[in-house]
Specification:
It is built from six helices and seven strands, in the order αβββαβααβββαα. It is α/β, with parallel strands linked by helices. Strands 1, 2, 3, 4, 5, 6 and 7 form a seven-stranded mixed β-sheet that branches. The protein is elongated.
Amino acid sequence: MGKIRPSDIVSRRSRRSAIPLSFVLIAFGACATHQTTFHASSMDFGSIQRVAVLPFANLTRENTAGERIRDVLVTMLLASEAFEVVPKGELARALQRTGVRDATAPSKKQLLQLGKMIDVDAIFTGAVREYGELRSGQATANVAAISLRLQETQTGMIIWSASSTQGGVGFWDRLLGGGGRPMNKVSEDVVGSMLDALFNVQSKSSSSADDDEDNDDAEPKKESHAKTAKSKTSKSKSDRQKMEEAKAAQEAYQKNKYKKNNSPGSE
């Protein structure tokens, strides 16, 4: 039996530790990111042109979290030019006139009244579930977790909703003691990821509507082609019939002429 060299022991130990280390890197290499979405498949999102953003419910210890996330959402909506957004002042006056006590959770009836008063197609409501600094061991990092809903103002139905979490303490934060991303960056990331999901649904809905219009346009064209083909067929039959009638008349004329020329009185 050969001697075991020290390098063999190191090599075996390295192979044994490779799998656990790679698992740790995968498990803790990224900050917390989680998102779930829902949308009503029957809704034409391309029909939504004007929206309002109600105040957010704040479930965190940070008093200004709801208003901060709401501001980020409004700013991003305006920058995207995807919708016309009702100004906050106009919305606040409408909430006062409709008698809504809790603007973060209006009833279905109040939401419908509000929709008519400010003339919007849909209304955003939301909640901030987590906002601020998160500690894990000796490391700290910023985190934001929010929920969003979009309700159609004709029926009050929820046509889109999403929940997302961004930020948190990652592996390198634990290893190096870093503080993660700034809070404003985390806020923009969490709102931006949700809007990307919404705009993706909106884009698919618009494409589907365009396909339906193309199919509708194709039907009259098919009918037109069918009528044209039928007309050509009828004309072709009519021409053949005329030719046959002319040929029969010519043959009858030739027969009569032959009879006259060969009759006894024709000499």
